[in-house]
Amino acid sequence: MKNRLLPQIGSRFYIMGILNLTADSFSGDGLLQQTDPLEAALAQAQQFAADGADILDLGAESTRPGAMPVSADEECTRLLPVLTRLKAELPGMLFSVDTYKAAVAEAALEAGAQIINDIWGFKADEQMGAVVARFGAIAVLMHNGRTLAQTEINPTLGGRDVSVHSDNITREVIEGLRQSVAIAHAAGLQDDQIILDPGIGFGKGTEQNLRLLKELDQLKELGYPLLLGVSRKSFIGYKLNLPPEERLEGSLAANAYGMLHGADIVRVHDVRQTVRVARMLEAILQA
After folding, report:
1. Mean pLDDT across the chain
2. Which of 75, 91, 98, 211 has the CA that lies 20 to 30 A from 218?
3. Which of 267, 272, 276, 279 is catalytic?
């Protein structure tokens, strides 16, 4: 199925670069740690654009396991000055905002964002669908099983979700995403406004994440473009016994597998390297 902002879905892979406007990102790249977060965000965004990113995803609340939530007002305070500046400096770039709060989404869309990336798939805030529909924006609907999970924190490898039972994680994710699509349709979204994300790392154990990635192509039965977010995540770290800053190769392997098995968009920290992988895969597939 085509997407109104990404017309080449199905014939090329899209790369989404992550801009963490937080101080507590699991991957250690939280821009609020910088002396001047606005300038740091601009520099990173410009580098990602030069490296070939198609979309920049701005998040102002950490979604790592065990992270403390922030208010909508605080999210907007962190997010809006950066979004406004980046829109002016990179007018041809697509901007996504990672939030599950309708008030933040509304402010971001008014400021020029085109995509809302909701980690709860419209299930956390009942107003979210109406906001996205009113602006005619794109929604990324993610599956999230975190309410059923426990968090385990390893000082080197970071946090992960554990103690989640599932007889068939892939089928459960498909059913959960169908529910999110139904919510989106009821709010007035059209099919070409919907992108789905299986939610790797959100309420799934390490083996479940691997199984879900292995069976990613089954999600194509839903008929929507797929976004995959595996970059530097804990299932890679726990399998390779590596901290977040050493997970490049594992991330590239997982993203390459994902792109070959249904992912249309990959959300990554390492844009330049992932773009090169994507362009090489395209060359092979089109040969």
Report:
1. 92
2. 98
3. 267
Report in angstroms the alpha-carbon separations of 273 from 21, 52, 226, 264.
22, 10, 20, 17
**Given this structure, which CATH class describes domain 14-286?**
alpha beta
Euclidean distance between CA atoms 97 and 76, whole angstroms: 11
CB 235 within 8 A of CB 221: no
Report how far residue 26's alpha carbon sits from residue 202's, in angstroms, rounded to the nearest whole number.
Answer: 13
Closest among 44, 56, 42 to 89, alpha carbons compared: 42
SS3 266: strand
Q: Which candidate in 78, 101, 146, 233 is catalytic?
A: 233
The string of pLDDT tens digits covering residues 102-150 is: 999 999 999 999 999 999 999 999 999 999 999 999 999 999 988 765 6
pLDDT at 117: 98
Question: 229: phi > 0 → left, psi -120 to 50 → alpha, else beta; which?
Answer: beta
Segment 55-113, tens digit of pLDDT: 999 999 987 776 778 899 999 999 999 999 999 999 999 999 999 999 999 999 999 99
For 227, the token pair is 């976004």
Residue boundaries of the structural domains of the chain: 14-286
Distance from C-alpha of 197 to C-alpha of 212, rounded to nearest angstrom: 11
Task: Give per-residue pLDDT as tens, 201-217.
Answer: 999 999 999 999 999 99
**How many whole angstroms separate alpha carbon 265 and alpha carbon 8?**
11
Q: Is 138 helix (H, G, I), strand (E, B) or coil?
A: strand
Catalytic-residue membership of 123: no
Q: Which two tokens stand for residue 54?
A: 């198609």
Contact by Cβ (8 Å): 270, 231: yes
C-alpha–C-alpha distance, residues 287 and 284, integer Å: 5
How far is 250 from 239, CA to CA, in rounded Å? 9
**Residue 233 is a catalytic residue:** yes
Per DSSP, the three-state class of 15 is: strand
